[in-house]
Amino acid sequence: MYAIEVENLVKKYGDFEAVKGISFKVKRGEIFAFLGPNGAGKTTTVHVLTTLLKLTSGKAIVAGHDVVKEPMEVRKRIGIVFQDPSLDRELTAYENMYIHGRIYGLGGNELKNKIEELLKFVELWEFRNKPVKYFSGGMQRRLEIARALLHEPEVLFLDEPTIGLDPQTRAHIWEYIKSMKEEHNMTIFLTTHYMDEAEQLADRIAIMDHGKIIAEGTAEELKKLVGNDVIYLKLEAPEDLKCLKAEFIRGCKLLSDGRVRLEVVNAAEALPKIFDLAKERNVKIVEVTYHRPTLNDVFLYLTGREIRDEEETNTLASMIRMRMRR
Amino acid sequence: MRALTTMAYRQIKRFTRARSRVVGMIVNPLIWLVFFGLGWSKVFDNPMARAIFGGVDYLTFLAPGIFAMTIFNQSFIGGVSVIWDKQFGFLKEVLVAPASRKEGILGRILGDSLVTLTQGTIILLLTFLLAENLKISGILPALGVGFLLAVAFSGFGVSLALKMESMEGFQMVMMVLMLPLIFLSGAMYPIDTMPSWMRALAYINPLTYAVDGARHFLVGENVTKFALTTDVGVLALLALFLVGVAMIEFEKATIG
Ligand SMILES: Nc1ncnc2c1ncn2[C@@H]1O[C@H](COP(=O)(O)OP(=O)(O)OP(=O)(O)O)[C@@H](O)[C@H]1O
Ligand SMILES: [Mg+2]
Q: Under a CB-based contact definition with an 8 Å cutoff, are residues B167 and B83 in contact?
């Protein structure tokens, strides 16, 4: 059945509507990701679902219990890794785990064994007696994940689990998340603004923007919304900026950063034609990039904006880049 | 009980981890005791002054006051340290847990109070080295009075911290409140020698009853102002009230 059911969830801070009536369902054993830019309302949603914030209207059922009517029942069944740090920095890794276990009603040898197992799982066992304030960001994140797993939650919430971490550490944490799902068949609700993270981990993705879910589906389904290869053109004179028209161009959009975005069935074949076309019309192309559609293209297609500016620099490396000067 | 003992355990663990800070906390009352107390003790070492201070040397008169001041200071700061939990995020971890919040915060207050008492004990033992007429047998019951005071002010600190966004506002509160409360507690001179408007303020100052209560045990009846039952009664009621408020406030707490 469903681990999370949300219907028309609205959350206002004063007059400001941070979440504007979203609905979605997460199946048991599924990894579900909220993908969206800063301020989309991801954290707000997580805090409502984990009973930390009161919803303004709508309904939310988590692990079979209503977050408003039975917050205690929900709390027993969930684990959470917050976006911001939430460890006791003065205490050691072991003490943080121990205190969490005790508060969640564990004790004795059961707790000891569980702590050892989980600290080994996230490779922090040898650092167990070190105060957390001496841990790196990645170590703290791993400890928070281990702590969230201690009481064996039915539903695990991960709010931007790899934010601010270097690529190796991120890949590492992805491994933990995947093996958690495989070994414990846990339901995982994940928020991220990294497309690759959503794509790597999630069974299904909801794209969120300005408090609304603007698309939902598997990564493949979402990419089919765009469908075609994508070409970005940068022109020498931005005043020439207008859509090129030709039968082989399936879609065209002018971007706010002054580039043209074209959709074609096959970029390799379309590019020479585009150069000819540009020459014909006396338009100078300064830069061309093209690639298979990504989730970022889906977001661009739906909103006209990038998910995150710095995201682009990451994906650029994997793009084929051509510079043309005439 | 789980939440209570665990949170108390946490506070005590944090204290043992931060031993260097403990030394710093004890320095302040020691400065009062040595530079203020020892400094004045020669001035007041005459029959007329002794009569004002209930027939004992000045350091003996002052010692229960310094003890109460230490407890008051440290327990208040301990309670307000909830604000660090807010800032470092640990508060969220507590609020999302399926445990009784009332119990959790009570555990925290009790843990902090035990920590504070340890500091108070150290100060008390040090004053025995200086003052002539303190009763050793009074230490344990005086710690009881100190405990009530600690619980009251750590509860007050918790409620205050839940309303505050940052530590800055708190520094102001401390600056404005601390010294008047101490001067108006009868710790340094008897309440009866104060002008009547000051005396009125001393009567509504909770610290007055803690100082007086501690004097009952550490010095003796002839130096005290109120009946022991009054001192303990006022402190106990205040502690109950302030802890009750803290528990209710914490139950309602959400993240900003
Ligand atoms: N306590 C608050 N009071 C007022 N507004 C808030 C509060 N918390 C968040 N907001 C606003 O609500 C919106 C959604 O914020 P939220 O933190 O849920 O976004 P997010 O998707 O998690 O973004 P990020 O990627 O930055 O974490 C933002 O515009 C934010 O400014
Ligand atoms: Mg967020």
A: yes
